[in-house]
Amino acid sequence: MKLRVSVVQYHLHTIHSFEEFAAQCEHYIKTAEEFGAEFVLFPEFFTTQLLSIGNGQGQSLTINDLPGFTEQYRELFSNFAKQTNMHIIAGTHVIEKGGKLYNTAHLFYPDGRIGEQAKLHITPTEVNEWNMEKGDSFQIFETDKGKIALLTCYDIEFPEIVRMAKAKGADVIFCPSCTDDRHGFHRVRYTSHARAVENQVYVVLTGTVGALPTVDFMRANFGQAVIITPNDIPFPPKGILVEGEVNNDMVVTADLDLELLYEVRERGSVTTWRDRRTDLYPDWEK
């Protein structure tokens, strides 16, 4: 089975209305549709662009204002998914539940369903500057092309959660990310390669590019879209199926062949998933 995935290097810049945001998102959606994509991935925190709109009185919006756009965000991407018949991982959006803020990845299904996965590991900036909370549950999402997981940025740096995702049957890890410098970018990029090798899965990763001069902690972005494979003979030698140009506004697209994953798990040069020593370090559950 194959699935075609488009990955968006979303360009952040100042806008003046939700309609501008919607038009930019529609551009990326139509680009993916023209390439025949079945899945589309947007980056983490790309909806912070909405904060650049301001309050109409010359004052900037803050992260606490972002949940106010949730209904419009969900309606916009739900309509995109239904109109295009694509699965859209619309990056992350900050939502409010019980008076607390959660950085939450959203999966929009073509049939109108919406899946949510709150970020499980949150960075010091998210805690200290934005007062966010960690997600407290993890799930795998069923699609008509198999099981997938949504792990956001910092999440991919923890091997246990990706091992859990594979143990639950996920073959593709979608990782929306947002990093502001080369150090953060390479932490996420290198650990994404490690997770693909360890678990013999695909990792689909992207980040924000551009800048939001009026939005705190979003003034700098360093990003690149990439689809990462295990490092074995059926795949490219560097484990990179496709990647974008660093910090450019663009969409990259490729086909993910799930049969190749099944092949290398059974007959690969190494069989890391099969050869794990559960007698020494048990899986997350029996």
Gist?
This protein has six helices and 15 strands. The chain has 286 residues and is an alpha/beta fold. Strands 1, 3, 4, 5, 6, 7 and 15 form a seven-stranded mixed sheet that branches. It has a six-stranded mixed sheet with strand order 8-9-10-11-13-14, covered by helices on one side. The protein has a two-stranded parallel ribbon with strand order 2-12.
Overview of this protein structure:
By secondary structure, the chain is an alpha/beta fold. It has one domain (2-267): Carbon-nitrogen hydrolase (Nitrilase/N-carbamoyl-D-aminoacid amidohydrolase), CATH 3.60.110. It is built from six helices and 15 strands. It has helices at residues 18-34, 70-84, 124-128, 159-167, 182-199, 258-267; strands at residues 2-9, 11-12, 39-41, 87-97, 100-108, 114-118, 132-133, 141-143, 146-150, 172-176, 202-206, 209-210, 226-228, 240-243, 250-257. The strands form three sheets. Strands 1, 3, 4, 5, 6, 7 and 15 form a seven-stranded mixed sheet that branches. A six-stranded mixed sheet has the order 8-9-10-11-13-14, covered by helices on one side. A hairpin with a 2-residue loop joins strand 4 and strand 5 (100-108). Helix 1 runs parallel beside helix 2 and helix 4 packs parallel to helix 5 (182-199). The relative contact order is 0.16.
